[in-house]
Specification:
- The structure is a homodimer of 189-residue chains.
- Chain A is an alpha+beta fold.
- Helices cover 36% and strands 30% of the residues of chain A.
- Chain A has helices spanning 4-19, 25-38, 105-116, 138-147, 155-161, 175-183, and strands spanning 42-46, 51-57, 62-68, 76-80, 83-92, 97-99, 120-127, 132-137, 152-154, 163-164.
- A six-stranded mixed beta sheet of chain A has the order 1-4-5-7-8-10, with helices on both faces. A two-stranded antiparallel ribbon of chain A has the order 2-3. In chain A, strands 6-9 form a two-stranded antiparallel sheet.
- The radius of gyration of chain A is 17 Å and the shape is globular.
- The termini of chain A are far apart.
- Chains A and B meet through helix 1, strand 1, strand 3, strand 4 and strand 5 of A and helix 1, strand 1, strand 3, strand 4 and strand 5 of B.
Chain lengths: 189, 189
């Protein structure tokens, strides 16, 4: 029931929130999504973390015992310009590569499944120590997995096949701009 | 932090699960979604219930105190046939109407927002005591709200403007069949 990977992610998130308040990738994406909603550009939300309830006081609405579950899908999905959008966002402290173990196998399967159905699906990876953010489409992710036995994607692969997301003022992580350039010929909706 | 409406829903869900195992609307929809995924028809998931964490033992991955939050979006979303699909599902024990108070105002706003962006969005309402299930598009829901001061939608409105979802063997609630008829001219993908 308790996944070590999930625990690690929660621990890391907690630490990041304290040491680097408002600057971690998840916060940047949540703020971008809020910006898109306020400006009626896109409706993309972070999914709540799935929880296994064990002991609940329904009278008080209080959860007294519960555990984190492994998510079966990605963290973010929604709609932009008539298209279903679905992605996962991860940070890494490595300067040279992104370990595929950061993404669950069923999350990769999910990205591929929705991509096959016509979704705009991708991953966003932040290299913390390089201060670089990349957008990598599921197609490119799939290609890498197909052609490589390596368990991590070298940064050069992101630089060559991905798109760097430059940090802007507002929103800091404007991934919809990348989607516009890649899927809509640079036209804003 | 604790919404009475949410508590009520959780209480009801709990009771339904015990008294009517495997037969409530949420279960039927979850099973339909599983059927669609297994058969590579659609990838639609129920979103986890949002939780406000108060006390967590990250070492054990154990949540020791948390509360239910009001969801900001609908329960279900995903992709079918290249289209973003988004909906809310509710049961009512009334034989004559569906009280709009069952759906949060921001959930209705969300349905309208995504519909304006090109989503296939709708509500599914089960009239428990009539054993009738209806699919009502956001367009029709919006029309009703615009033209009526009533706080509940009479069953006749569902019968006239909605589509009855007949109970089948598998999946019991085949709402994709309704989507096919309404949005794709009856052609299966």
């Amino acid at each position: 029931m308790i996944s070590k990977n999930i625990l690690l992610q929660f621990n890391n998130k907690n630490k990041t929130n304290f040491s680097n308040r408002g600057m971690n990738l998840e916060n940047d994406i949540n703020l971008a999504n809020e910006y898109y909603r306020i400006n009626d550009i896109a409706y993309i939300y972070k999914k709540p973390t799935p929880i296994k309830l064990v002991d609940v006081d329904y009278k008080l609405g209080k959860i007294k015992e519960a555990y984190f579950k492994t998510p079966s899908t990605t963290d973010y999905n929604g709609i932009y310009n008539g298209k279903y959008v679905d992605f996962e966002a991860k940070e890494t402290n490595s300067k040279t590569s992104f370990a595929l173990s950061n993404i669950h196998k069923h999350q990769i399967d999910h990205l591929i499944n929705v991509s096959n159905k016509g979704a705009i699906s991708f991953i966003i990876v932040r290299f913390n120590k390089l201060n670089e953010n990349y957008f990598l489409s599921t197609e490119n992710l799939k290609e890498f997995i197909k052609n490589n036995k390596r368990k991590s994607i070298p940064i050069d692969f992101f630089r060559r096949y991905g798109t760097m997301i430059k940090i802007k003022y507002s929103p800091r992580i404007d991934y919809i701009e990348v989607i516009n350039n890649l899927y809509f010929g640079g036209n804003k909706s």
